[in-house]
Structures are given as C-alpha cells and as structure tokens.
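Lab notebook, bench 4. Still working through the backlog of constructs that have no structural model yet. Next entry is a single chain of 381 residues. Request: give me the structure tokens for it.
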Amino acid sequence: MKISSFAVYRVKPRWIFIKLVTDEGIEGWGEMISGTKTETVVTGATELAQTLIGRDPFAIETLWQELYNSFFRGGPINATIVSGIETALWDIKGKALNVPIYELLGGRARDRIKVYSWIGGDRPDDVVREALDRKNRGFDAVKMNATEELHYIDSYEKVQAVVDRVASIRKEMGAGFGIAVDFHGRVHKPMAKVLAAALEPYHLMFLEEVVLPENEEAFREVAQHVATPLATGERLCSRWAFKNLFRTGVIDIIQPDVALAGGILETRKIIATAESFDMAAAPHAPYGPIALAATLQIDACSPNVFIQEQSLGIHYNKGFDLLDFVENKEVFQYKDGFVSLPTLPGLGLVINEELVKKVSAEGLVWTNPKWKNYDGTHAEW
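Model written out:
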C-alpha cells in the first residue's frame, strides 16, 4: 500500500482538514489549527504532504521523524501540519486493519470518557443560565473564561467580577458540580496570584493557563497561593516542550492538543509520561470533529485522562458546529456527562466530504479578537 494523493481543505469556522488517500482507496483524515495563519498552514501542509506520495502509510513513526526532524524544526505552524498528517496516517492504518486506533495503542483503559462543556464566551455573562442549561443536558462539569482584558496590575473590581460569576454558579449548582476557570493566558503573574487566591474558596476543578507558557516559572508562585489543581499545555508543540513541566512538578494537569503536539502517538507519549509523574490529563480539544475524534482515541487508552474538552456549542463555532461535517453524528452523543468509546475503524468518523469541499471553496479567514487595555496597550486575548 502506498500514499497516492492528498487534499487540504479550509473549513469554517476555523479548521483545516487534510485527507490522505492510498492506492487501495483507503482515506485518512487529519486536522490542523489555522491559528490566524490559514494560508501559511495550508501551503506548508501541501508542501509536506507532497513528500509522502509513494510512501508506506503504515510507517507512521518513520514518516513522523522525517517530517518533524528538519533542520529548522518546531514551532506551532510546523507542529500542527505534522500533527494533522500523522492523524491521517493513523486513520488509514486503523481502517486498513479494521480496528479503532486505540486498539493499536495498547487497547482500552476505560469503559467511557467523561466530558465537560464550555460556558461563557470571551466576555462571560449570564453564566448561571448557561450552566443550568448544560446540567439539564446531562453535563456535570463546565469550563468558563475567567476574565476580559486584564493589565499587569489591574483593579480589584475586575477580580471581584470574576469571583461573583464563579460564586453564582457554585451557589446555584452545588458543591458536586465541576467548575474549571480558564485564565487563557490573559493574566500576568501579579494579578494571577491575586485572582487564583480569590477563587480558592469555590473549590474549582482546575485553573487553566494561569499565565502564558513562556512565563512557566510563575506557575510555582501561583501554586504557593492555592490548593486548586493547575492545568496547562494547550500551546505546547512537542514532547520536549513538556519536559520542564514534568521536572518541576508544579502543574497537576497537562492539556496537550492532538492537533498541535505532534499527533496521536506523540500526544499519547506525553500523557503516558505525565502518568509516570502522577499527573492527570485533560486534553485540549476546542476545534473540529477530526481533532476531537483523534483525542477520544487517546483518551480511550490513557488511564490518567480524567475529563475531556469538547467544542459542541462553543462560542467560537460561528456558522458551523462540531457535527455539521460528520455523517455518523452518533459518535459525539453525550449521555450523563460521558461519551462512549469509539467503535468504528480508524478515527471512527464518516466525513461529509461534499459539504467540506463546498465550504472550503468559500475560503477561510479567521483571526482572534484584538483587545486593548484601558491605556491603549496590547491586551492578551
């Protein structure tokens, strides 16, 4: 079997799909992150995919090493391209062998996968109503963005606004309801300590990305102020980027993204390493259906994954949502806050390629909001 062709699709609202095809007619799908640089990623994916024509799709580790280990390596653009291609290769292998991918990674470690739902957008409001809606739909855990713009040093009024939102959810939903708060890298170290400490009484499931990953030395300072588990990892592009997190032991939960961290096997390696350091995992997956399907394959065989992000109804999905490009929509049916293990071969998805082609022809321009602080300086989104 050889790889004979490929196609790259720009898919609204902010996804990039890649399809690899073999000379035996088996198709494999992968997903990449546009990350505000859609055309750069598409061009790079086309360039790398061309090198796979005529190659054996089963030789995943060999091909991954060749794609990743160029002289100029690393960085999010190359990482997401390699991740998407690697995922498509696993999809082919699983379909060819007629098994879900997790059966090729050691087999299942669980019976089902717990999931949480997003509430609150970039400017969170009316979060109690949204939390109640999710509870009525069977979820018993949610995640919300913490704050809007926040300067290096900012007002306690903004801190209190975050506390009030979280307190309102806790009061309404009770002690047994899971609440995670995402700082989203918007908070600098001085205010991260203040905000984390202020949220401590509300017994949160975790605090996410309390500072940007390039400021990882600040995690220890924040950890000294709280007992709440700290989570990070969604922006890290490789196993090597996680090494310091494992060494320091300050982070409690790692959040690798299969569409950025190198693909399915690389993400599995990262999560397995975390297990050896007694760390939990809650993989990042707010993007499209292919990335989520790939993540569920990893969750199925990773015992330290305790909960999974999913993007159905997330505020970023404007115009199209998670299920729109999937024909077998039952694979993402949630019941009582859980999703069943995949059972179909490969990723377990049947992609509506005709709709993908139609939407891709319309083009894709996605960029994150541009925020300013009260004094006109750049604010992290």
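Notes after review: The chain has two domains: 3-100, 103-343. The first strand starts at residue 3 and ends at 11. Flag for follow-up if needed.
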